[in-house]
Known about the structure:
By secondary structure, this protein is an alpha+beta fold. Helices cover 26% and strands 32% of the residues.
Amino acid sequence: MLGIKDADSAENNSGSKNIVIYPVACAVPGRSDGAPKLSGAISEIRIRPGSYLHSFYKKDVVAEEFFCNYEVNPEFEWAVIEAGFPIVARGAADEAHAIESPTHRFFIATLFQPQLSSQAGKPHPIIVEFLRAAAKWKTQKLEDAVLE
């Protein structure tokens, strides 16, 4: 993974010295008993201007819903960035919450879950943009087939 020998996730409990994905360092205060450490709404997620995510949200700071126990180990952020995946969303303690590929509009990985804050009549911006891109791709494929 990321060109790192013996890279692993703490969830696998492998004993690797290179744990790239590790337990959430700061638990969300006031979360429900037994819920993952990173669960519930977090109101201060900073989105990097110029990123795809920023173009979806059209704002610099957003609130998102989480439900997870693992995050990128800050000691390995350099490897994620070096592999071509800039960190495009960060929390209040500067922790990584999303990465994306600048060469592919929908190679996006987030710790938050868009489906948790999507509502009838008000779908999440990532979901809306994904559906737009899928419709555009389908139209392009149909046009390409006609031209062949």
